[in-house]
Amino acid sequence: MSTVVSGTLFDPFVQTLKGVCISISEAGVIESVSPDSKPGKGFILPGFVDAHVHIESSMLAPAAFARAAVIHGTLAAAADPHEIANVLGKAGVELMLRLAAQTPFVFGFGVPSCVPATPFETAGANLGPEAVEALLDLPGVTHLAEMMNVPGVLNHDPAVIAKLASAHRRGLPCDGHAPGLNGESLRAYAAAGITTDHESLTLEEAREKIDAGLKVLIRYGSAARRFEEFLPLLAAHPEMCMFCSDDKHPDDLLNDHINHIATAARRAGIPLAAIIQAACVNPVRHYRLPLGLLQVGDSADFQIVDDLESFRPREVWLRGRTVARDGISLLDHGVPEIQNNFAALPLAPETLRIPDIGTNLVRVIGVHDGMLLTDHLTLKPTLSDSAVVSDTRRDIIKLVVYNRYVPAPPAVALVKGFNLKHGAIASSVAHDSHHIIAAGVNDTALASAINAVVADKGGLAVTADGGQVLARLPLPLAGLISPEPAETVAHGYAECDLRAKDLGSALTAPFMTLSFMALPVIPSLKLTDQGLFDGVAFRHVPLRAE
Length: 546
Known about the structure:
Blueprint: E1 3-11, E2 16-24, E3 30-35, E4 43-46, E5 48-53, H1 62-69, E6 74-79, H2 82-88, H3 90-100, E7 106-111, H4 129-136, E8 141-147, H5 150-154, H6 158-169, E9 174-176, H7 183-191, E10 196-197, H8 203-211, E11 215-219, H9 232-236, E12 241-244, H10 250-255, H11 258-267, H12 272-286, E13 302-305, E14 313-318, E15 321-325, E16 328-329, E17 354-355, E18 362-366, E19 375-379, E20 382-384, E21 387-389, E22 396-402, E23 411-416, E24 424-427, E25 436-440, H13 443-455, E26 459-463, E27 469-474, H14 486-502, H15 510-515, E28 525-528, E29 531-534, E30 539-540
Parallel strand pairs: 1-4, 5-6, 6-7, 7-8, 8-9, 10-11, 11-12, 18-23
Antiparallel strand pairs: 1-2, 2-3, 4-13, 13-14, 14-15, 15-16, 17-21, 18-19, 20-21, 22-23, 22-25, 24-25, 24-26, 26-27, 28-29, 29-30
Helix pairs in contact: 2-3, 4-6, 11-12
């Protein structure tokens, strides 16, 4: 027996509004779209698509991510399992595909192209050209994920070119990642078969990328929130734009998703047709996602919103059934399969001691709120009992990276900008290799926070000066993901965030900032498990600055 839905439809192809009755078959397919002179309340729109997201950043399994996303009208995502691939390799990508099968939500997975991300840290896995080629043939894989190795593309690195060629032979798109790239280098990057970019630093850079043939993804997530300046691209080039979140923490995902960009675009006066093209049509076509676009014969995938300004869904339909109603998700959060790669053992506070190295100046990582770039500072160390120690009066505290894959002593350095006055915070979310990373004011608190993460085989932890654990969020799936539903994970993450701020941190998102302190490819100074890394000189450097 057919189901009938009545409302005012926005057809994404003829780009008109009209009252309709949609007849949906028992198989969840649109049988007919008929005129209705007295349509029901609400506007019927295609489902939104997140055109680039790392599901792991939400700390949720795919089904739990989907359960949260559908309440905002999102019905599909082009997902890059780069984080779990760095931990579990090929098995991690295969695991995400299995977990995604637990939900009707449409996931199009990319095969990570840069695992390991760099040779300057101990990696948990390696995806060479052969592994990438094998993964590209799996059901549910739709593209080669972001090619961050820009020099490898431009210099025709054999492994990089082999990965791109594997995707090209299959007719699959290749995502890009090229912040700041322009001129001849940009044109050569695009000519290598790269099709998208989500890392433009300026509007002019984004325009140049469109001129080079790249589709530009306008991004609003938990880390990257600058998107309003790119909205003029929508009006000028709607066929070349898509929306994405890239990284979305669990508490943020409960609040909004792609609908936030759509709402801001409408507020900026962008035509509805351009918004729907970028939010729905372009990603479905680009990644060939099996998501309906409100045409006869399509899968019945759509949202019914109260108005065309706030895009607040009244109902969300997927495969011909309601999956969310009035902000309540009707999907299940799934049953995750736990896999991990975690060999770290507890450590003693004394292993974090920095002996007096007899110098007047040491290198210190300078942190800025809301930025991934850091400063390369040279400052006078504070000494106590013949050791370099934290100095909260100067906002200089210890930073630790502890290898999670093989037995190794921790790398210890100094960081300025966290504003911690007490205790320590630690996490196994540390881009891109995801070792344990911690920042704290004394060795007892640091060791306790690190050991809490070790005990949970991954997660977040906050400790007091004396080592008491104030909050923790276990992430047993690869040290990145919780098996719990979004609401539970969001509460745990918010508690860790609050406790970190209670310790004095003035950062907007202290754990997010912490997670990028080990990413060596972003200048100027970072800490890997192998020591301090100068992201400008592209080499490891000693703590001693003279």
